[in-house]
Design a protein that fits this description.
Domain Calponin-homology (CH): 122-239, 267-370, 392-498, 516-624
Radius of gyration: 26 Å
Biased composition (Low complexity): 670-680
GO biological process, one term: actin filament network formation
Helix content: 40-55%
Region (Disordered): 630-655, 670-696
Organism: Lithocarpus litseifolius
Length: 696
């Protein structure tokens, strides 16, 4: 079995932003300075950071010092290791902003939010305020505060209690948050505000937002640039929601054959939008290729051509005849308004090439007039290419989970984006540090097919080392996009990660190796928790059909935090409608508590045992981090194992060894119902949706 020395920090989010390799490197740099000087100050950081590979080509030492001075008034002040890590993240965000964006990542979703001071883009702020005023004007709670004045700080003040952001998420992806879980009193206490912001951040991740270096306190304080960054992502997710084959199968008209359809499936939504725009521009006789929503649209010509071909009844040659870009931009916006496109940007925003606002403008044109034909033959082909409901839900869950891990690559479609093996290697490095041999890995773009196979072979090899059940599976199965295999592998990876988190939390004490956490331990913990709270519900297994009414999970949530469930809004769960109400409420309450979960209400109603296990384990993980957790909550044979980590030492030279983190896991769903096995069973193709056998 593998073992490694782990560097632990007390903030789980901060821990999640680094691999163990990165943590150990940074820890050694920190300890080295501390050993020499007796302490580490902010003034020591520039000379440390400038030598790091991530920054050496991006910044000079004086530039790093200037960036740090924006956040720290006293450069002679002592800094602990966690603050050292946060300073590193802030500098990393500056490096990301300074460097050209990766063409493989989704530009706005990977936008980093930091605590460093940033100037506010007033045009974007005005646009987002107009959007909020329009879409939330009739909201029963918010309407008394609307419309907001974009020239004031009213937006930031209103966002401080968390209600606005939660409501905005529901506008972007309806039904994400059960509004019964939002605290909407006129005056909220600090606890209630924190709950709203926790619910907001966990729900934002669950719709695909990438939130880096932002916490509930940042939202409570109404930090303008952090709020605008989050609001921008939420609004764009709403505006780009239809730019996929599932929602708009007519998009298949943009491609010629099945290979191109596969490529279309893997494109991020803004790339699909560009493809759509260029499709119409080519038909209109526009000779240039639009590659971005900034410099390529500043003169307004592309917009004039686009609107002329999409809505000739509202357009004309005048916009093309004028030589003044500002005048042309004004005509373009006037034409767009005739299509009911809300005027969220000004002629100045077009001329100056504001990328966010121009993207939003094109997305609005697409929503109101996409100009695509209904070709029955092509539509049928597009529908064949989309997944069934269960596969689609699982793909969504794993995609959101991967994107929440903070890896470098943003995943738009699991089945397409992981076929070169690189994303899976990034995930494995995150959840099982030092398991990946990067010298044997090829980074995208990968032109040679055998390099993709090599990456995927290493993925399979590591999976087997982690005791995943991969019978007759080879890397080429992943390269070929075997969906059943991919889902089964990702399920085992997600389950391994959660069990490892629980094991670390329960077993790491004074270097002592603890007992593995099993499905049965999680089941027993949940039943014991509910029983000790004086409730009568119990679950026989993670496939117990009685779980579909949601009562057990509401009682479990109430048991770990009595005040979090409002029982007056809970139904008996006897009808399908009542079950859905309870399931939606469970997910929002769990997120409000602090659980980062990605399942949908249907997973609870249908008792999807995989997602039920992850939900229970997530609640257990949150509960065990609370100081009041009782030792008897674990099985009797584990009574000598403490419930949580002692406070992690982050500024000393010594590190406590973390033995046996790479667990010997049983990846057998039958373990949900029976005593766990010590070894992973063989996985066979026909008997279980979670098991897969590769080709011989």
């Amino acid at each position: 079995m593998s073992s490694f020395v782990g560097v632990l920090v007390s903030d789980p989010w901060l821990q999640s932003q680094f691999t163990q390799v990165e943590l150990r490197t940074l820890k050694s740099k920190y300890v080295s300075v501390r050993t020499q000087s007796g302490r580490v100050t902010v003034g020591d950081l520039p000379s440390i950071f400038v030598k790091l590979k991530a920054f050496t080509e991006m910044f000079k030492e004086d530039e790093i010092k200037a960036i740090l001075e924006e956040s720290y008034k006293d450069m002679d002040g002592e800094i602990d290791f966690e603050s050292f890590l946060r300073a590193h993240i802030n500098l990393q965000s500056r490096a990301t902003a300074k460097s050209p964006g990766s063409k493989n990542s989704s530009s706005f979703l990977k936008a980093t939010t930091t605590t460093v001071h940033h100037s506010i883009n007033e045009s974007e702020k005005a646009s987002y305020v107009a959007h909020i005023n329009s879409y939330l004007a009739e909201d029963p709670f918010l309407k008394k505060y609307l419309p907001l004045d974009p020239s004031t700080n009213a937006l930031f003040d209103l966002a401080k209690d968390g209600v606005l952001l939660c409501k905005l998420i529901n506008v972007a992806v309806p039904g994400t948050i059960d509004e019964r879980a939002i605290n909407t009193k006129k005056i909220l206490n600090p606890w209630e505000r924190n709950e709203n912001h926790t619910l907001c951040l966990n729900s934002a991740k669950a719709i695909g937002c990438t939130v880096v270096n932002i916490g509930t306190q940042d939202l409570v304080e109404g930090r303008p640039h952090l709020l605008l960054g989050l609001i921008s992502q939420i609004i764009k997710i709403q505006l780009l929601a239809d730019l996929n084959l599932k929602k708009t199968p007519q998009l298949v008209e943009l491609v010629d054959d099945s290979k191109d359809v596969e490529e279309l499936l893997g494109l991020p939504p803004e790339k699909v939008l560009l493809k759509w725009m260029n499709f119409h521009l080519k038909k209109a006789g526009y000779e240039k290729q639009v590659t971005n929503f900034s410099s390529d649209v500043k003169d307004g010509e592309a917009y004039a051509f686009l609107l002329n071909t999409l809505a000739p009844e509202h357009s004309g040659p005048a916009a093309l005849d004028t030589k003044d870009p500002a005048e042309r931009a004004n005509m373009v916006l006037a034409h767009a308004e005739k299509l009911d496109c809300k005027r969220y940007l000004t002629p100045k925003d077009i001329v100056e090439g504001s990328p966010n606002l121009n993207l939003a403008f094109v997305a609005q044109i697409f929503q109101h007039r996409n100009g695509l034909t209904v070709d029955t033959k092509k539509m049928s082909f597009a529908e064949m290419m989309t997944d069934d409901a269960q596969t689609s839900r699982e793909e969504r869950c794993f995609r959101l989970w991967i994107n929440s891990l903070g890896i470098a690559t943003y995943v738009n479609n699991v089945f397409e984006d992981i076929r070169n093996g690189w994303v899976l290697l990034e995930v494995l490095d995150k959840v099982s540090p030092e398991s990946v041999n990067w010298k044997q890995a090829s980074k995208p773009p990968i032109k040679m097919p055998f390099r993709k196979v090599e990456n995927c072979n290493q993925v399979v090899k590591i999976g087997k080392q982690l005791n995943f059940s991969l019978v007759n599976v080879a890397g080429n199965d992943i390269v070929q996009g075997n969906k059943k295999l991919i889902l089964a592998f990702l399920w085992q990876l997600m389950r391994f990660t959660m069990l490892q988190l629980l094991k670390n939390l329960r077993s790491h004490s004074q270097g002592k190796k603890g007992k593995e956490i099993t499905d049965t331990d999680i089941l027993n913990w949940a039943n014991n928790k509910v029983k000790k709270a004086g409730r009568t519900s119990q679950m026989e297994s993670f496939r117990d059909k009685n779980l579909s009414n949601g009562i057990f999970f509401l009682e479990l949530l109430s048991a770990v935090e009595p005040r979090v469930v409002n029982w007056s809004v809970v139904t008996k769960g006897e009808t399908e409608e009542d079950k859905k109400l309870n399931a939606t409420y469970i997910i929002s309450v769990a997120r409000k508590l602090g659980c980062s979960i990605f399942l949908l209400p249907e997973e609870i109603i249908e008792v999807n045992q995989k997602m039920i296990l992850i939900l229970t384990a997530s609640i257990m993980y949150w509960s065990l981090q609370q100081p009041a957790e009782e030792s008897e909550s674990c099985p009797a044979e584990d009574s000598n194992i403490p419930d949580a980590y002692p406070a992690a030492s982050v500024d000393g030279e010594s590190e406590t060894p973390l033995d046996g983190v790479v667990c010997n896991l049983a990846i057998n769903d039958a373990a949900s119902d029976t005593a766990p096995s010590d070894t992973a069973p063989e996985v066979e193709n026909e008997e279980s949706p979670d098991k897969v056998e590769g080709k011989d």
